[in-house]
Input
Amino acid sequence: MLEIEIAGQLLPGTERKLQLRLDRAESVRQVADRLGLDPEEIGLIVVNGIQSELDDLVPPDGRVCFYPPMTGG
Amino acid sequence: MQMLRVDMGSLGVRQEATPAAYEHLGGRGLIARLLLEEVPPDCDPLGPHNKLIVAPGLLGGTGVSTAGRLSIGGKSPLTGGTKESNAGGTAGDALGRLDLKAIVVEGQPSAPGWHVLLVGPGSAELVAAEHVIGLGTTAACEALWQRYGQESTVIAIGPAGELRLIGAAIVCTGEGEQRSNIAARGGLGAVMGSKGLKAIVIRPTNAAVPLAEAELFRTSARRFAQELLNDPKVGPKGGTHTYGTSAITAAVNEMGSLPTRSFSSGSFESAGELRGEKLRETILARSGRIGTRCMPGCVIACRNVYVDENGNTIVGTLQFETIALLGSNLGLSDLDQVAQLNQLCNDLGLDTIETGAALGVAIEAGLAKFGDFESLAALLRQVAEGTEHGRLIGSGAATTGRALGVERVPSALGQAMPGYDPRSLKGNGLTYITSPQGADHTAGNAFGARKEVNPLGIEGQARLSLKLQIMAAMLDSTGLCLFARPPVVADPQLMVDMLNGRFGWGWTTEDLDRANRDVLRAELEFNRRAGLPPARERMPAYMRTEPLPPHGATFDLPDSEIEAVFEAL
Output
């Protein structure tokens, strides 16, 4: 089961932690599409602890976190 | 513009015209140049030959959004090198409106006694400070406001600075009763204490800053503010405003870079209790405030007022770096407890980063326990009591480690590392060891540099760090907040237009770039003359060999990448 975490102001009203069953690895972009996330609103993606991009693959038993645009001060 | 020279030996204050050579310098850039030209690089940072320099940025007083930050500098007692630390509040704008480019505090008192420097329109004098000596910064600012008026701006040290503890910070007041804008890094509070100067009180003026090309200035300043408002990161819908700087806590943890239990892990199992969403929910549920500003005219407004269950203020703002160093780094997951330690540090006049790291080191030595708030608070309270352990904590992580025999000390160039473990965010690690400022994320923060460089990789880190360090030099010299960088990074001409509108210099973007690089060149030269060790020797040995969970990362950048950072400067 894929663990998903959606942070900050992305998808307000949605549970922050979700699970999704995938038959096979999918791209981050495909997972975002399934959730209804606008790729333009995603600032940072972390897959299994690694900073990733929309075209990177997410394993079915992995973990993906979506963050809004953010900046360190 | 004018400069104030304050001689603590003779207690004389004189005003002088700024030398023409300093015309294009402000904030950090001016500090770097003054240190290079006036301070012996091998001097004792707490001795008579060091200088404490207080300087607004070039755009201070103009009303440009976020441009009112105040730079404070001197030779750092922590790093032994050049230092600039900046804070929000009202001081930067107030000094700009007073036509003051800098206050340079020199010498040392020839007799025991403390002073307050009063600065106002056309006046400056030193007065006795006995009524505020020994007070924490909260009470000291209150007493000074009562005496000189609530509209005044106060810059003050706390007991840590009075004791010349080298982890001491300098507190600057802001709008209303705000007392938690802090020039925290580098131990400059100890330098101020070594001058016998408890506080600077600035009486404001409504005088407008002259504009050489008013229409150009107004057009570009308006565009700058609008672009900040439109920015997805820092605009009103962005995370920085909505959640404050702790918007990034969860992401830093997820990437395995959140300092945890004295930098022994990059992932804290209770990070969810410290994340920005939790902070916001807690504050709003208790009728605290979120999205407040630290400077008049700031459109980002990333501060908060953290309150207890009864709605009483615990601390003026609770920020990411503090949450990391006083929270996860100490094994604490209760925001109330982190806020209380934060306020203790603020009142003592201590840098929360340095102090959090020192407390972590003290835990390793057995003086307290991870996750045990009471033992940590008790240790911190000893700072004001001047006990042996209190003096150690107030003197920062490196001193604490040396005295207690702890080798795992998360510092570079004697200054504690901020809230990003350099093993899993190597770009920040490279900045920590190469920046002339020592381990300081604001000198060039690689977090979130998406699509540019793999945070865990080696390739491209040197180029990224240099780019970020040059940008930071620009922001710190103009008085802009680090968060306000997106519009001027995307279009440097916008910054050039604001400067040309203010001063009529006729600069190009090439002139701006050269000026920014010159700041770093001056700082590097001061440090070279001070005999600081080469960058490749500054990373703590254990961070090169001890794998950091969860990625098992070490700081493995080769010397060639470290030495390459400034090749293109």
Q: What stands out?
A: The interface with chain A takes residues 232-234, 237-240, 242-243, 245, 247-248, 250-252, 254-256, 267, 275-277, 302, 319-321, 420, 441-442, 445, 447-448, 450-451, 454-456, 482-483, 486, 550-551 of chain B (CB under 8 Å). The mean pLDDT of chain B is 97. DSSP finds 22 helices and 17 strands in chain B.
